[in-house]
């Protein structure tokens, strides 16, 4: 259990409001169209308080208005209630599961994906890989990138399903095409190693580049290694260094360690050059190292 990274797979609040949702009438004097508009206005008020669009961010007020809309079946409001319950200083997994389930049953992909994560981790409920796969698969079939990545990861690890690297590649690729950087990096690794697919260094570099451009720290490091070693690209220490620096700034330990190694190598080589200079009576050629 617990292979996923919650920061990746717990989806954030949706900003888009839909015009109509299932709801119940609260007054015999209100027709369906009027009630639908009222429910959506409640949701939009919740959005305003949650994001502080008018400079007045208020989580309690957001929860109040989201709840009013969610009680009448507003999908995004139900999802938002789930996210609020899942985050903050007072996490309530049971409430989060309640609202994600409500929205999931109506086909809300992000809620389905999050519900799958809850069952995978056993957050406030007994862990259940069968239910996790069920809900994540439903979200992935709706082309939700996070769910596609999670499903690929479950196939890679054999969690709740029979291990299949071919299926892992399939779902990683689906998510990668939607610009999910973590999926792009993992897909690149599969092409680089020939896991579940024929080894293809060019495709590996392609996906590392795309993920690195989106700021993925692992992809920046992996692409830096490729430039340092000339694997699939021409050797370029300058590019490698810049990529290691970008990755290290985000706290990626391997990148920081690689920078330390490169700096130590530079120090040693500069000392060697200076020793040669003492013999040759010439200026050391340090151009290729000055950027370090």
The 3D shape can be described as globular
Mean pLDDT equals 83
C-alpha termini separation: 43 Å
Low-confidence stretches: 1-9, 13-32, 272-292
Q: Approximately what portion of the residues adopt beta-strand conformation?
A: under 5%
Share of residues in helices: 55-70%
What is the number of strand segments?
0
Protein structure class: mainly alpha
* SSE arrangement, N to C: HHHHHHHHHHHHHHH
What is the helix tally? 15
**Major sheet details:** none
Q: Roughly how many Å is the radius of gyration?
A: 25 Å
What tags apply to this protein structure?
single chain, 292 residues, mainly alpha, 15 helices, globular, disordered N terminus, disordered C terminus
Please describe what this structure looks like.
The protein has helices spanning 6-9, 32-51, 59-70, 75-86, 93-104, 109-121, 129-140, 145-157, 165-176, 181-193, 201-213, 217-229, 237-249, 253-280, 287-290. By secondary structure, the chain is mainly alpha-helical. The protein is globular, with a radius of gyration of 25 Å. Residues 1-9, 13-32 and 272-292 have low confidence and may be disordered.
């Amino acid at each position: 259990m617990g292979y996923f990274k919650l920061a990746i797979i717990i989806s954030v609040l949706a900003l888009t409001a839909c015009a109509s949702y299932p709801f119940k009438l609260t007054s015999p004097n209100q027709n369906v169209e009027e009630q639908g508009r009222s429910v959506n206005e409640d949701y939009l008020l919740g959005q305003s308080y949650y994001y502080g669009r008018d400079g007045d961010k208020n989580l309690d007020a957001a929860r109040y208005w989201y709840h009013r809309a969610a009680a009448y079946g507003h999908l995004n409001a139900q999802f938002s209630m789930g996210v609020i319950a899942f985050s903050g200083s007072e996490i309530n997994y049971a409430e989060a599961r309640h609202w994600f389930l409500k929205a999931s049953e109506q086909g809300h992909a992000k809620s389905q994906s999050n519900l799958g994560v809850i069952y995978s981790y056993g957050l406030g409920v007994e862990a259940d890989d069968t239910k996790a796969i069920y809900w994540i698969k439903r979200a992935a079939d709706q082309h939700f990138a996070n769910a596609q990545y999670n499903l690929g990861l479950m196939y890679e690890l054999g969690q709740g399903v029979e291990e299949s690297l071919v299926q892992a590649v399939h779902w990683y690729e689906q998510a990668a095409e939607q610009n999910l950087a973590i999926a792009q990096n993992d897909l690149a690794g599969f092409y680089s190693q020939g896991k579940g697919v024929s080894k293809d260094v060019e495709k590996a570099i392609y996906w590392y580049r795309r993920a690195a451009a989106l700021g993925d720290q692992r992809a920046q490091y992996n692409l830096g290694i490729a430039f340092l070693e000339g694997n699939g690209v021409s050797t370029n220490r300058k590019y490698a260094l810049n990529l290691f620096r970008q990755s290290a700034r985000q706290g990626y330990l391997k990148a920081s360690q690689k920078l330390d190694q490169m700096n130590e190598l530079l120090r040693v080589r500069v000392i060697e050059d200076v020793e040669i200079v003492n013999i040759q009576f010439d200026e050391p050629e340090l151009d290729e190292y000055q950027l370090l």
